Amino acid sequence: MSDLFPPFAPDPNEPRKRLFKPVPFRMIAPNIITLIALCLGLWAIRLAFDGQYERAVVAVIVAAFLDGVDGRIARLLKGTSRFGAELDSLADFLNFGVTPALIIYSFVLHELGRVGWIGSIVLAIAAALRLARFNVMIDDPNRPEWKKNFFVGMAAPMGAMCALLPLYLSFLGIPIQESSVGPIVLVYVVGVAFLMVSTIPTYSGKTMGKYVPRQWVLPIFVLSVAAFGLLISFPWEMLSLITVAFLATIPISVMRYRKLDRQDGSGVAAAGSSPSGVEPPPVA
Q: How far is CA 45 from CA 56, 60, 136, 236, 283, in A?
């Protein structure tokens, strides 16, 4: 019987079969940054429940910075993937939807009871709807190139930063936590939620700054260092100023978008008048 099943010794030089295909690190690095941002969002919720609102706001701001970095690093390293896009979207919902909603509720909206809780829910749901719409529109192959300079509605990270404006003002000494100010904060938070789900175009800045004139290089360096120094030295003043300045640019972005849309529409109409884009000569 032993002759039917002789002992078998495997070849030591035969390569071992791998159960999983190795993944390049350039595909993993952007996802690590996204996970760090996700941890910051969860940490901000805990800090808010502990009453450490300043540290909670800083955690959200850093998470917003990392959210702007991970996508650019992925494109730079050619490490974009469908998994990374889905992970980034889920992290954005928590960091810029759930987290700011819970922070603002714990800070002031809880004074309004159920109405304040509904306002927080509206902010979180608006972020989810805005991200879902963004994921659908990004796959549109017919989208004109100039529209990449605009978001449809307010981006989720900027929406979170704008929603936290009452906290910035409170850190500056303005009495935001008084019961009489609660309804004003509620209306403001719902307004930010509306801007996120609306079709109002806002500047994205993704394609801006690809090429900088040589004479502007050194001034940009100086201004960047000055802005960073002011942000570190006067964080709440600068965050309040940036938020108000961004909200003030929304009418400008709407006018610019409409102007480009009219130009694009007139160009398409002129090109569609004939197959070659040139009007045919009149027939005698």
A: 7, 9, 29, 19, 73
